[in-house]
Amino acid sequence: MRLVPWHDPLPPGIALHRLDLDLATEDGDAWADLTPDERARASRFARRADRVRFAHTRAAVRRLIAQHLACNPADVPLRADAHGKPFVEAGSDSAAPLFNISHAGDHALIALADPARVRCVGVDIEACARDLMADADALLAMAFTAREQREIRSDADLPRAFFRRWVGKEAVLKAAGVGMAEHLQSVGIHPDAHGALAVDCAVHAWAGIEAMALSAPPGYAAALAWHTKEQPL
Protein backbone atom coordinates (compact mmCIF):
# COMPACT_ATOMS: atom_id res chain seq x y z
CA MET A 1 0.00 0.00 0.00
CA ARG A 2 1.39 3.40 -0.96
CA LEU A 3 -0.33 6.65 0.05
CA VAL A 4 0.55 9.54 -2.25
CA PRO A 5 -0.34 13.17 -1.37
CA TRP A 6 -1.94 15.15 -4.19
CA HIS A 7 0.23 17.94 -5.62
CA ASP A 8 -2.05 19.40 -8.30
CA PRO A 9 -4.06 22.55 -7.41
CA LEU A 10 -7.21 21.86 -5.40
CA PRO A 11 -10.01 24.06 -4.01
CA PRO A 12 -9.18 25.81 -0.70
CA GLY A 13 -9.81 23.64 2.34
CA ILE A 14 -9.53 20.31 0.49
CA ALA A 15 -6.68 17.78 0.52
CA LEU A 16 -6.53 14.70 -1.65
CA HIS A 17 -4.53 11.47 -1.39
CA ARG A 18 -4.15 8.61 -3.85
CA LEU A 19 -3.70 5.11 -2.53
CA ASP A 20 -1.86 2.69 -4.81
CA LEU A 21 -2.83 -0.89 -3.95
CA ASP A 22 -1.07 -4.23 -4.36
CA LEU A 23 -4.08 -6.48 -4.81
CA ALA A 24 -1.91 -9.61 -4.64
CA THR A 25 -0.84 -8.96 -1.04
CA GLU A 26 -2.96 -8.89 2.11
CA ASP A 27 -0.84 -6.75 4.43
CA GLY A 28 -1.66 -7.37 8.09
CA ASP A 29 -0.62 -3.80 9.01
CA ALA A 30 -3.81 -2.45 7.47
CA TRP A 31 -6.03 -4.87 9.40
CA ALA A 32 -4.48 -3.76 12.69
CA ASP A 33 -6.01 -0.28 12.23
CA LEU A 34 -9.54 -1.56 11.65
CA THR A 35 -12.28 -2.17 14.19
CA PRO A 36 -13.45 -5.75 14.84
CA ASP A 37 -16.60 -5.05 12.81
CA GLU A 38 -14.53 -3.79 9.88
CA ARG A 39 -12.24 -6.80 10.00
CA ALA A 40 -15.28 -9.06 9.98
CA ARG A 41 -16.73 -7.13 7.03
CA ALA A 42 -13.47 -7.43 5.11
CA SER A 43 -13.32 -11.16 5.78
CA ARG A 44 -16.72 -11.66 4.16
CA PHE A 45 -15.43 -10.57 0.74
CA ALA A 46 -14.88 -13.72 -1.31
CA ARG A 47 -12.26 -12.15 -3.61
CA ARG A 48 -8.89 -11.16 -2.23
CA ALA A 49 -8.83 -8.01 -4.36
CA ASP A 50 -12.05 -6.80 -2.74
CA ARG A 51 -10.70 -7.54 0.75
CA VAL A 52 -7.52 -5.60 0.00
CA ARG A 53 -9.39 -2.60 -1.43
CA PHE A 54 -11.71 -2.35 1.55
CA ALA A 55 -9.16 -3.02 4.30
CA HIS A 56 -6.38 -0.81 2.95
CA THR A 57 -8.62 2.08 1.97
CA ARG A 58 -10.43 2.10 5.31
CA ALA A 59 -7.12 1.83 7.21
CA ALA A 60 -5.68 4.74 5.22
CA VAL A 61 -8.75 6.88 5.98
CA ARG A 62 -8.45 6.06 9.67
CA ARG A 63 -4.77 6.95 9.73
CA LEU A 64 -5.31 10.29 8.01
CA ILE A 65 -8.19 11.32 10.27
CA ALA A 66 -6.36 10.07 13.39
CA GLN A 67 -3.65 12.65 12.66
CA HIS A 68 -6.29 15.39 13.02
CA LEU A 69 -7.85 13.89 16.15
CA ALA A 70 -4.58 12.81 17.83
CA CYS A 71 -5.90 9.30 18.50
CA ASN A 72 -5.24 5.76 17.37
CA PRO A 73 -6.61 4.96 13.89
CA ALA A 74 -8.91 2.22 15.21
CA ASP A 75 -10.44 4.75 17.65
CA VAL A 76 -11.66 7.18 14.97
CA PRO A 77 -15.48 7.11 15.37
CA LEU A 78 -16.58 6.31 11.82
CA ARG A 79 -20.23 5.75 10.99
CA ALA A 80 -22.22 5.45 7.74
CA ASP A 81 -25.40 7.26 6.71
CA ALA A 82 -28.48 5.72 5.08
CA HIS A 83 -26.75 5.72 1.69
CA GLY A 84 -23.58 4.11 3.06
CA LYS A 85 -21.53 7.33 2.99
CA PRO A 86 -19.05 7.20 5.89
CA PHE A 87 -18.55 10.15 8.24
CA VAL A 88 -16.98 10.97 11.59
CA GLU A 89 -19.67 10.68 14.25
CA ALA A 90 -21.16 13.94 15.57
CA GLY A 91 -19.83 14.95 18.97
CA SER A 92 -16.28 13.96 18.13
CA ASP A 93 -13.43 16.46 18.07
CA SER A 94 -14.23 19.55 15.99
CA ALA A 95 -10.90 19.08 14.22
CA ALA A 96 -12.29 16.05 12.39
CA PRO A 97 -12.36 16.67 8.63
CA LEU A 98 -15.16 15.85 6.26
CA PHE A 99 -14.08 13.06 3.95
CA ASN A 100 -15.05 10.90 1.03
CA ILE A 101 -13.44 7.87 -0.58
CA SER A 102 -13.57 5.96 -3.84
CA HIS A 103 -11.65 2.96 -5.12
CA ALA A 104 -11.40 1.11 -8.40
CA GLY A 105 -8.90 -1.38 -9.72
CA ASP A 106 -5.47 -0.75 -8.20
CA HIS A 107 -6.18 2.73 -6.87
CA ALA A 108 -8.22 4.62 -4.28
CA LEU A 109 -8.80 8.33 -3.71
CA ILE A 110 -9.37 9.90 -0.30
CA ALA A 111 -10.62 13.49 -0.09
CA LEU A 112 -10.41 15.40 3.20
CA ALA A 113 -12.13 18.75 3.70
CA ASP A 114 -11.98 21.42 6.39
CA PRO A 115 -15.54 21.70 7.80
CA ALA A 116 -14.93 25.38 8.56
CA ARG A 117 -14.59 26.06 4.82
CA VAL A 118 -16.39 23.24 3.02
CA ARG A 119 -19.99 22.02 3.41
CA CYS A 120 -19.55 18.68 1.65
CA VAL A 121 -17.11 16.78 -0.54
CA GLY A 122 -17.33 13.85 -2.96
CA VAL A 123 -14.74 12.00 -5.01
CA ASP A 124 -14.88 9.24 -7.60
CA ILE A 125 -12.41 7.14 -9.55
CA GLU A 126 -13.34 4.55 -12.15
CA ALA A 127 -11.46 2.11 -14.34
CA CYS A 128 -12.44 2.97 -17.91
CA ALA A 129 -13.73 -0.42 -19.03
CA ARG A 130 -14.38 0.13 -22.71
CA ASP A 131 -16.34 -3.10 -22.99
CA LEU A 132 -19.17 -1.27 -21.22
CA MET A 133 -19.66 0.66 -24.44
CA ALA A 134 -20.99 -2.49 -26.11
CA ASP A 135 -24.42 -1.41 -24.84
CA ALA A 136 -23.81 2.31 -25.07
CA ASP A 137 -27.37 3.23 -26.07
CA ALA A 138 -28.89 1.69 -22.94
CA LEU A 139 -26.22 3.17 -20.67
CA LEU A 140 -26.61 6.65 -22.08
CA ALA A 141 -30.40 6.57 -21.80
CA MET A 142 -30.23 5.33 -18.21
CA ALA A 143 -27.53 7.57 -16.79
CA PHE A 144 -27.35 10.82 -18.75
CA THR A 145 -29.52 13.81 -19.51
CA ALA A 146 -30.51 14.59 -23.09
CA ARG A 147 -27.83 17.30 -23.32
CA GLU A 148 -25.16 14.96 -21.97
CA GLN A 149 -26.16 12.29 -24.46
CA ARG A 150 -25.81 14.73 -27.36
CA GLU A 151 -22.39 15.85 -26.14
CA ILE A 152 -21.14 12.29 -25.64
CA ARG A 153 -22.37 11.10 -29.03
CA SER A 154 -20.69 14.04 -30.77
CA ASP A 155 -17.30 13.26 -29.18
CA ALA A 156 -14.83 11.33 -31.32
CA ASP A 157 -13.77 9.33 -28.24
CA LEU A 158 -17.11 8.13 -26.87
CA PRO A 159 -15.72 6.05 -23.95
CA ARG A 160 -13.59 8.97 -22.73
CA ALA A 161 -16.55 11.34 -22.99
CA PHE A 162 -18.72 8.83 -21.11
CA PHE A 163 -16.36 8.30 -18.18
CA ARG A 164 -15.44 11.99 -17.78
CA ARG A 165 -19.11 12.73 -17.17
CA TRP A 166 -19.78 9.57 -15.16
CA VAL A 167 -17.11 10.26 -12.53
CA GLY A 168 -18.21 13.89 -12.29
CA LYS A 169 -21.83 12.85 -11.83
CA GLU A 170 -20.94 10.31 -9.15
CA ALA A 171 -18.69 12.75 -7.29
CA VAL A 172 -21.48 15.36 -7.23
CA LEU A 173 -24.07 12.89 -5.96
CA LYS A 174 -21.66 11.63 -3.30
CA ALA A 175 -21.06 15.21 -2.18
CA ALA A 176 -24.83 15.73 -2.01
CA GLY A 177 -25.09 12.57 0.10
CA VAL A 178 -27.75 10.81 -1.98
CA GLY A 179 -28.02 7.47 -3.70
CA MET A 180 -26.82 7.18 -7.27
CA ALA A 181 -29.55 5.10 -8.88
CA GLU A 182 -32.48 7.43 -8.24
CA HIS A 183 -30.68 10.69 -9.09
CA LEU A 184 -28.58 10.00 -12.19
CA GLN A 185 -30.81 12.20 -14.33
CA SER A 186 -30.85 14.98 -11.72
CA VAL A 187 -27.29 16.07 -12.47
CA GLY A 188 -25.72 17.04 -15.78
CA ILE A 189 -21.93 17.22 -16.19
CA HIS A 190 -20.39 19.31 -18.97
CA PRO A 191 -16.56 19.29 -19.23
CA ASP A 192 -14.64 22.15 -20.76
CA ALA A 193 -11.24 22.04 -22.43
CA HIS A 194 -9.41 22.93 -19.20
CA GLY A 195 -10.68 20.15 -16.92
CA ALA A 196 -13.43 22.12 -15.23
CA LEU A 197 -16.79 20.37 -15.00
CA ALA A 198 -19.85 22.59 -15.26
CA VAL A 199 -22.65 21.14 -13.12
CA ASP A 200 -26.37 21.40 -13.92
CA CYS A 201 -28.53 20.33 -10.96
CA ALA A 202 -32.26 19.75 -11.12
CA VAL A 203 -32.39 19.83 -7.29
CA HIS A 204 -32.15 23.39 -5.95
CA ALA A 205 -30.33 22.37 -2.75
CA TRP A 206 -27.39 21.09 -4.79
CA ALA A 207 -27.01 24.21 -6.91
CA GLY A 208 -23.79 25.34 -5.19
CA ILE A 209 -21.87 22.12 -5.79
CA GLU A 210 -18.83 22.52 -8.05
CA ALA A 211 -16.74 19.83 -9.72
CA MET A 212 -13.42 19.33 -11.46
CA ALA A 213 -11.70 16.53 -13.33
CA LEU A 214 -8.68 15.01 -11.60
CA SER A 215 -5.45 13.66 -13.00
CA ALA A 216 -5.84 9.89 -12.98
CA PRO A 217 -3.52 6.97 -13.74
CA PRO A 218 -3.67 5.65 -17.32
CA GLY A 219 -6.90 3.76 -17.91
CA TYR A 220 -8.80 5.58 -15.15
CA ALA A 221 -10.99 8.67 -14.83
CA ALA A 222 -11.54 10.66 -11.65
CA ALA A 223 -13.37 13.73 -10.39
CA LEU A 224 -13.82 15.82 -7.26
CA ALA A 225 -16.97 17.69 -6.17
CA TRP A 226 -17.43 20.13 -3.31
CA HIS A 227 -19.65 22.86 -1.88
CA THR A 228 -17.86 25.70 -0.09
CA LYS A 229 -19.33 27.60 2.83
CA GLU A 230 -18.94 30.88 0.93
CA GLN A 231 -21.65 29.69 -1.45
CA PRO A 232 -25.28 30.18 -0.38
CA LEU A 233 -27.47 27.14 0.22
TrEMBL record:
Ranges for domain 4'-phosphopantetheinyl transferase: 121-200
Entry superkingdom: Bacteria
Any Gene Ontology biological process: lysine biosynthetic process via aminoadipic acid
GO cellular component: cytosol
Positions of the 4'-phosphopantetheinyl transferase N-terminal domain: 33-111
Pfam families listed in its UniProt record: AASDHPPT_N (PF22624), ACPS (PF01648)
Organism: Variovorax boronicumulans NBRC 103145
Keywords: Transferase
PANTHER family reported in the protein's UniProt record: L-AMINOADIPATE-SEMIALDEHYDE DEHYDROGENASE-PHOSPHOPANTETHEINYL TRANSFERASE (PTHR12215:SF10), PHOSPHOPANTETHEINE TRANSFERASE (PTHR12215)
Designated name of the protein: 4'-phosphopantetheinyl transferase
InterPro entries per UniProt: 4-PPantetheinyl_Trfase_dom (IPR008278), 4-PPantetheinyl_Trfase_dom_sf (IPR037143), AASDHPPT_N (IPR055066), P-Pant_transferase_sf (IPR050559)
Keyword match Transferase: yes
